[in-house]
Specification:
Elements lengths: L2 H32 L3 H19 L1 H9 L3 H12 L1 H11 L3 H10 L11 E10 L2 E9 L4 H6 L1 H8 L1 E8 L5 E8 L8 E2 L11 E7 L2 E6 L6 E4 L6 H14 L3 E5 L16 E3 L2 H24 L5 H8 L6 E5 L3 H4 L6 H20 L5 E7 L9 H6 L2 E4 L5 H8 L13 E6 L2 E9 L2 H4 L11 H15 L13 H9 L17
Parallel strand pairs: 5-15, 8-12, 8-13, 9-10, 9-11, 11-12
Antiparallel strand pairs: 1-2, 2-4, 3-4, 6-7, 6-15, 13-14, 14-15
Helix pairs in contact: 1-5, 2-5, 3-4, 10-13
C-alpha cells in the first residue's frame, strides 16, 4: 500500500468515525424530542437510575469485573455511566417510519429523491365524541402535491383527512385526520331532544367526532347547496324547525309555489311565494337591521344576546330561509321590469348579508345548481358557512367550497360537507320528516323594533281620534305591512315564557 492509498484509507476512516459520531448525537437529539411521550420519558428515568446505581456501586463493579479483565471493567462501568445518552440514541433511531414507508410504497407516494416522507411525530387527541390523529411529516414535496394526493394518503394511512397544512418549516407537513375504522352513520333521524338550548346555535348532523353545529352568533349566514335528492331542503327545514322551537321569527321564501315550505309551515311564519312580497319583507328587515344597529350602539352592546341581557328585553332572532337562491339572483331570461325587481331584491339581500352579523337576522340560503351569477362575490364573502352535497361537476364544488371535495362524497342521501374557515368536514345530516316532526307549539316570540314603532303610532292615533272622525275608513299602509309581516300579532299577545305543546 503506497502513501497515497494509506492517506486515503485514513481519511475515509476518519470520515466514517465523524459520521458515526454525528449520527449518534443526531439520534440522541431525536430521542430528546421523544421524551414528550410518557413511555419514553419513564425509560429515560430508568436509565438515569442505572447510572446512579453504577456510581454508587463502582467499587463492587470493579471487583466483579477485574476477575476477568480490566478492559471489561472499563466497558461495563463507563457503559453504565453513559446509559442515558445510549438510551436517547436508541429511542432516536427507533421509530415507526419503516412501517409508514411500506404504507406510502403501496400508493407510490415518494419524495423527489425517491425516498418516502419521514414521520416526525404522531399524536392522538380526544375531540368531541371521537379522536383526531395529528401527523407531522418531513418531505421535499410541496403542500399542493400533498393536497392533490389526499385520497392516496388517506388510503395509505387508513384515515379520513380533515386538514392538510404547511408546518413551521417548508419541509414539514401537518395532517389532521380521523381514524379510518370510525364510520359515519348513514341515517340519523331528527329528534327534538337534539335541540341546543344556547341562543343562535343549531345542530345540522353528526360525524365521527360528534354533533356538527353552527353558531350563528359567530357565523350568521349559511349557504346550503346540493343536487336534487341530496337532502339540501331537508337541512333547511331542520334548521328552520330549531328556529321555530326557540321562538324566533321565520320568513320562508319559496318561489316553487310554496311546495318546499307547504301549508303546514304557514302556522309558524310567513311563506312568501311572490317576488313583490319578498322585496317588501326584505326592505322591512333591512330597516329593522339599521334600527337595531343604532340601538345596540346606544346601549354599548355588541350583539343581540348582549343587548337583550343588558336591557332585560326580548328582541327576537329572525331567520330568512330561501329555498332556491337562483330565483332571487339569476336574471337570465327576465324582462326589464323583472330585472329591476331582482336588482332591488339583490341589493336588500346583500345589505343584510353584510350588516346583520350582530343583529340576529340570519340568512339561510339554499341553492341547487351553484353558478357564479347566483353565488356572487358579495354572497361568498359574507356567507361564511357552506354546506355542500355531492356534485359530479367539480366546478360546482369549487364555487361552493373553494375545493373539489364534493366530487368525492359517497352517494348517500343526506351526506354533506361542512365548511367554516379552513376545515371541511364530512357529516350525515339529520333527517327531518315533516309528517313526524312538525307539531303544534306555542312559543314566546320576541319583539321587533318596527312593531314597537307601529304600536306607538297606534297609540297616538287613538289619542287624536276626535280630530279624525273618519279614521275607521282609512287604512294605514304601514299597518298592512306590519300585520302581514307578523301574522301572529293579529291573534294574540306573546306569552311571558316558552310554552311548548307536543
Amino acid at each position: 500500500m503506497n502513501e497515497n492509498q494509506l492517506n486515503s484509507e485514513i481519511e475515509n476512516m476518519l470520515v466514517s468515525i465523524f459520521k458515526a459520531v454525528g449520527n449518534f448525537f443526531k439520534s440522541a437529539f431525536l430521542g430528546i424530542k421523544k421524551l414528550k411521550e410518557l413511555p419514553f420519558f419513564i425509560g429515560f428515568l430508568v436509565s438515569i437510575l442505572i447510572t446512579i446505581v453504577a456510581v454508587c456501586f463502582k467499587v463492587k463493579i470493579k471487583t466483579l469485573t477485574e476477575v476477568h479483565s480490566i478492559i471489561i471493567y472499563y466497558v461495563v462501568y463507563y457503559g453504565l455511566l453513559i446509559m442515558p445518552v445510549i438510551y436517547l440514541n436508541f429511542i432516536g433511531k427507533f421509530n415507526s417510519n419503516s412501517k409508514n414507508e411500506e404504507l406510502f410504497k403501496k400508493v407510490d407516494f415518494k419524495n423527489k429523491d425517491g425516498s418516502y416522507p419521514y414521520l416526525v411525530k404522531k399524536q392522538v387527541i380526544a375531540k368531541g365524541d371521537g379522536k383526531i390523529i395529528n401527523y407531522i411529516f418531513s418531505s421535499s414535496l410541496n403542500l399542493d402535491i400533498w393536497k392533490g394526493r389526499k385520497s392516496d394518503i388517506e388510503t395509505a394511512l387508513n384515515c379520513t383527512i380533515i386538514k392538510i397544512e404547511q408546518g413551521k418549516k417548508k419541509t414539514l407537513i401537518n395532517i389532521e385526520a380521523i381514524p379510518g375504522n370510525v364510520k359515519v352513520d348513514e341515517f340519523v333521524p331528527w329528534k327534538d331532544e337534539f335541540l341546543i338550548n344556547e341562543d343562535g346555535v343549531v345542530a345540522i348532523g353528526k360525524n365521527q367526532l360528534g354533533v356538527i353545529q353552527i353558531d350563528l352568533n359567530k357565523t350568521p349566514h349559511v349557504l346550503a347547496a346540493g343536487e336534487t335528492g341530496s337532502g339540501k331542503s331537508v337541512i333547511l327545514r331542520c334548521i328552520l324547525w330549531q328556529f321555530i322551537l326557540k321562538g324566533c321569527r321565520v320568513y320562508m321564501l319559496d318561489f316553487k309555489g310554496g311546495v318546499e315550505f307547504g301549508l303546514d309551515y304557514e302556522k309558524y311564519g310567513e311563506v312568501i311565494t311572490e317576488k313583490e312580497r319578498a322585496l317588501e319583507v326584505l326592505k322591512l328587515l333591512t330597516t329593522e337591521n339599521v334600527n337595531r344597529l343604532e340601538l345596540f350602539r346606544a346601549a354599548r352592546a355588541k350583539n343581540l344576546a348582549e343587548y337583550n341581557s343588558k336591557e332585560n328585553t326580548n328582541l327576537c332572532r329572525i331567520g330568512v330561509f330561501v329555498d332556491e337562491l337562483a330565483e332571487l339572483m339569476d336574471k337570465t331570461g327576465a324582462d326589464k321590469e323583472e330585472k329591476e325587481m331582482l336588482d332591488k331584491i339583490q341589493k336588500e339581500v346583500s345589505s343584510l348579508a353584510r350588516l346583520s352579523r350582530a343583529t340576529g337576522i340570519n340568512l339561510i340560503l339554499g341553492i341547487q345548481r351553484p353558478d357564479a351569477k347566483v353565488i356572487t362575490g358579495q354572497i361568498k364573502n359574507n356567507v361564511p358557512v357552506r354546506i355542500c352535497g355531492r356534485f359530479a361537476d367539480a366546478s360546482a364544488s369549487e364555487i361552493v367550497l373553494n375545493n373539489r371535495l364534493a366530487t368525492n362524497l359517497p352517494e348517500i342521501k343526506g351526506r354533506f360537507l361542512y365548511k367554516a374557515g379552513a376545515e371541511t368536514l364530512e357529516f350525515q345530516a339529520y333527517y327531518f320528516d315533516d309528517d313526524k316532526n312538525l307539531k303544534d307549539i306555542e312559543t314566546n316570540q320576541g319583539t321587533m323594533l318596527i312593531e314597537q314603532s307601529e304600536d306607538k303610532e297606534d297609540v297616538e292615533k287613538v289619542d287624536t281620534e276626535d280630530v279624525q272622525p273618519d279614521k275607521d275608513e282609512k287604512i294605514d299602509a304601514a299597518d298592512i305591512k306590519l300585520n302581514s309581516l307578523n301574522p301572529a300579532k293579529k291573534e294574540s299577545n306573546k306569552k311571558d315564557k316558552f310554552n311548548f305543546h307536543f
